Amino acid sequence: MAIIRRLMEDRIRERAYHLWEAEGRPEGRAEAHWALASRLEAESEAELDEMGRESFPASDPPGNTPQTGIGRG
């Protein structure tokens, strides 16, 4: 679990850095950039989770599909 937390912190740190740069590298806004980056990462994670839940059944092959045209000759 520590590895996952570390990876998430790294993504937040990188996103906060890009936000800071996009704002012209202002002084004293580190906490605001971190909070925004944290929220954006959480939203991205939730969106990916939702996409995974929606696609899960489609990835399973149908269990009861009749095959046609096999064995006919």
UniProtKB/TrEMBL annotation:
InterPro entries assigned to the protein according to its UniProt record, in alphabetical order: DUF2934
Name of the molecule in the record: DUF2934 domain-containing protein
Pfam families, A to Z: DUF2934
Region ranges (Disordered): 41-73
